[in-house]
Amino acid sequence: MRGEAGSRGCEILCDSYHIRKGKPKLKGLPASFGTEEEVETLEVVCVDRELRLKVILSYSVFEKSDMIARNVRLINEGEEHLRIEKVLSACIDMDDEEFEMVTLAGGWARERRLQRRRLTYGKQMVSSSRGESSHQEHPFLALVTPETTYQTGCVYAMNFVYSGNFVAEAELNQHDAVRMVLGISGEDFCWNLRGGEEFQAPEALLTFSDEGFGKMSRSFHDFYRNHMIRSPYLHKKRPVLINNWEATYFDFDTEKLLDIAREAKKAGIEMLVMDDGWFGKRNNDDSSLGDWNVNKEKITGGLKYLVEQVREIGMEFGIWFEPEMISPDSNLYREHPEWAIHIPGRKATESRAQYVLDLSNPEVVDYAYECVAKILRSAPISYVKWDMNRQLCDLGSSYLDRVSQQELFHRYVLGLYEMQERLVNEFPELLLENCSSGGGRFDAGMLYYSPQIWCSDDTDAVERLSIQEGTALLYPLSTMGAHVSDCPNHMTGRITSFETRGHVALFGTFGYELDITKIPEQDRKMIPSQVEMYHKYNDLVREGDYYRIASYRENHKYDCFLVAAKDKSEALMTFVQVQCIPNFHGKKIRLQGLDEKALYRLEGTEESFTGEMLMKGGFVIDFMQGDAVSRLYHFVANF
Ligand code: DGJ
Question: Which pTM was predicted?
Answer without folding.
Answer: 0.98
